[in-house]
Amino acid sequence: MAGKVITVAQQKGGSGKTTLAAHLALGFRAEGKTVGLIDLDPQGSLGRWYVTRLERDEAACEGLDFATSSAWGISMEVRKMANSCDIVIVDTPPKVDSDLRPALRVAHLVAVPVAVGHMDLWATEGVMDLAAREDKPVLLIMNRTRAGTRLGAEVATAAKELGAPVAKAVLAQRVGYAEAMGQGRAAIETKGPARDEVSALVAEVAERLKAG
Ligand SMILES: Nc1ncnc2c1ncn2[C@@H]1O[C@H](COP(=O)(O)OP(=O)(O)O)[C@@H](O)[C@H]1O
Ligand SMILES: [Mg+2]
Fold first, then answer.
1. Is 17 touching ligand 1 by the criterion CB < 6 Å?
2. Ligand 1 pocket: which of 8, 17, 19 to mutate (most atoms <8 Å of CB)?
3. Considering only CA atoms, which residue is closest to atom 27 of ligand 1?
4. pTM of full prediction above 0.90
């Protein structure tokens, strides 16, 4: 198994797991890496995103593989994909329970998006506990940030106090992320600040994977 596995997890729905999974995937593709995506969420948003992309332009899915999996089948699916992909990204449903454990167990890094808000932060501790039990490194990634707001500053400080590393790169609140997702794209494929945010995040995640 050659590829590195990133599991994206967060109990809170709407925190940006699927957005993060797709953006990391295309971010790593832009670096020339082959990427495999696995959707564990029965809602299937990542699958919809992938199919939308595939139907628009098959060539845009070159080097970008996709599969769904059940919670218990994930280790087999990951092993298969990691044989042919440099990076495997697992998107998970918005719950933290025993079903999540196999997806954490196969991870080299657990990426946890935290949409700026205290409720998201409270939800973060569950996935951190579970990752710690599996002895897996966690990276918190602040999402939907708004520069200069008091809430943003408060949540950033509180996130640091949780004890897991917080990525320096953040994804700001931008309609471009949501728009791109609906088209089976990622904001990294457009010009503008979102592209720089995603590149910075990918570089940071790559460093973490190297260290782990
Ligand atoms: N940085 C962002 N800026 C703007 N909208 C965002 C951002 N991140 C996520 N969203 C939007 O928030 C909603 C939830 O995101 P999603 O990735 O589906 O979260 P999850 O997979 O955790 O449920 C979606 O409508 C998505 O387009
Ligand atoms: Mg999702």
1. yes
2. 19
3. 178
4. yes
* Distance between CA atoms of residues 188 and 112, nearest Å: 20
Q: Can you tell me which atom of ligand 1 is nearest the CA of 144?
A: 1
Range of the domain at 61: 4-211
Do 91 and 18 contact (CB within 8 A), yes or no?
A: yes
Encode pLDDT of 134-190 as tens digits. Answer: 999 999 999 999 888 888 888 888 888 888 999 999 999 999 999 999 999 999 998
Kindly state the tokens that stand for 56. 């628009």
Using a 6 Å cutoff on CB, does residue 19 contact ligand 1? Answer: yes
**Could you tell me if residue 165 is left (phi over 0), alpha (psi between -120 and 50 degrees) or otherwise beta?**
beta
- Closest to 49 in 3D by CA, of 89, 77, 10: 89
Query: For ligand 1, is residue 176 a contact (CB within 6 Å)?
Result: no
- Establish whether residue 171 lines the binding site of ligand 1, counting it when its CB lies within 6 angstroms of any ligand atom: yes
How many structural domains are present in the chain?
1
Structure token digits, residue 23: 């953006």
Task: Please indicate whether residue 94, judged by its CB atom, sits closer than 6 Å to ligand 1.
Answer: yes
User: Would you state the structure tokens that stand for residue 45, as one six-digit string?
Assistant: 């948003």
Distance between CA atoms of residues 132 and 4, nearest Å: 19
Provide the CATH number for the domain around residue 168.
3.40.50.300
- Closest Cα to atom 8, ligand 1: which residue? 16
Report residue 93 as tokens. Answer: 């449903």
